[in-house]
Design brief:
Layout (H helix, E strand, L loop, with lengths): L1 H14 L11 E12 L4 E8 L8 E7 L15 E8 L10 E8 L2 H46 L4 H21 L3 H27 L8 H9 L5 H34 L5 H30 L1 H6 L5 H4 L3 H34 L7
Length: 360
């Protein structure tokens, strides 16, 4: 276990200094102490008490415009905590008046921490040691995405290669942490990694022949305004790879674990029999797992699904955003189908050849 922790720390210590993050806009936290309405309820004159930063404790009066568009309006009430964007209105800041404050959004991270805490507590209560290892694996995966994948893409590295590298590193850390250092885990890593590369190739082909632009949502346009130099088709392919990663790991671990249990029950079975048993289990897995992946995409794109009721279906299915979501779900499902035989072959050979398991 200590070796795994050391490996993770060394990996982040060696890789993350190579990349530098872009300068971000500074923000502070405030609380609404008073609200006045003006211009026929189209503007809120909000009094905000700053809670953090150099101007903590000061009161600021900020105009909050209400346009009638729920996508952009921020409806505030007294007692709401808000995120304040700060901007200097002069080259030299000497007083509070030299800083302009704008309301960026309502503070919501308290709820995020609450539900994250509930999730971790339940994971520890139900999973015990493996639950703890699962939490470490989740944190490692988040670290890989935010500290390696994001800086690599922003610094001009190929998004597809970056996503595949991140996915493989996440797979190795997650599966070895949860499953231990053994043939079962190694075969699951092989199955996931090969399927991940296959998904990357499929995404490249789909993007090219379907003429996908990579601009399937507003967030892509926002990113384009600040970083027009990035490859948005490459980012789209990377998002397809990362989106399929969890389902691929789940499928590979299920197949490898099943073959390992069958071998421990009857070690007289050969590679062919173990492979056949793994494929039989895979037949049951692929239906539910592919369905799960497609439902995830449908759930995240429910407004698009509802929109189909008001648009000609021929036009609807050829919209860039709709085609992107459908192809993403299909690519992930195809990769899952490929993961089953690949993992079954790897697990049958490795588990049969390595009878002695090395665990921690």
């Amino acid at each position: 276990m200590k070796k795994i922790f050391t490996l993770i720390l060394l990996m982040f210590g060696l890789i993350t200094p190579v990349f530098s993050q872009d300068q971000v806009m500074h923000s502070e936290t405030g609380i609404v102490t008073n609200i006045k309405y003006d211009n026929n309820d189209t503007k809120q004159e909000v009094t905000v008490k700053v809670l953090t930063g150099d101007f903590k404790g000061t009161q600021r009066i900020i105009d909050n415009m209400l346009t009638g568009n729920p996508a952009y309006d921020i409806h505030l009430s007294k007692g709401n905590k808000v995120i304040l964007h700060t901007e200097a209105n002069s080259d030299i800041v000497t007083a509070a008046d030299d800083i302009d404050f704008f309301i960026a959004d309502i503070k919501r991270d308290n709820q995020i921490w609450l539900y994250a805490g509930i999730f971790c507590i339940l994971l520890l209560l139900i999973g015990h040691k493996k639950g703890l290892r699962s939490i470490i694996a989740i944190l490692a995966t988040l670290g890989l995405i935010f500290l390696i994948l994001v800086p690599m893409v922003l610094n001009g590295f190929c998004p597809i290669a970056s996503a595949v590298l991140t996915g493989i590193l996440s797979t190795v850390i997650t599966i070895y942490l949860v499953g231990g250092l053994n043939s079962k885990s190694s075969s699951a890593i092989i199955g996931t990694s090969v399927s991940l590369i296959f998904a990357g190739l499929l995404s490249l082909i789909a993007i090219h022949f379907a003429h996908l632009t990579g601009f399937a949502g507003e967030e892509n346009m926002f990113l384009y305004t600040v970083r027009p130099d990035l490859s948005f088709t490459g980012i789209l392919s990377a998002s397809m790879i990362i989106a399929a990663l969890g389902a691929l790991m789940d499928t590979a671990v299920s197949i490898a674990s099943t073959i390992n249990e069958i071998h421990e029950t009857d070690n007289s079975l050969g590679v062919k029999e173990l492979f056949k048993s793994g494929m039989n289990v895979g037949h049951d897995i692929i239906g539910t797992m592919s369905n799960t992946l497609i439902l995830v995409y449908l759930g995240s794109s429910l407004p698009l699904v509802l929109l189909s009721n008001n648009i000609d279906l021929n036009k609807f299915f050829n919209l860039n955003q709709v085609a992107t979501e459908i192809l993403s779900a299909l690519i992930g499902s195809i990769a899952i189908l490929a993961c089953v035989p690949i993992t079954a072959i790897a697990a049958s050979v490795l588990i049969k050849r390595n009878k002695e398991k090395v665990t921690f």
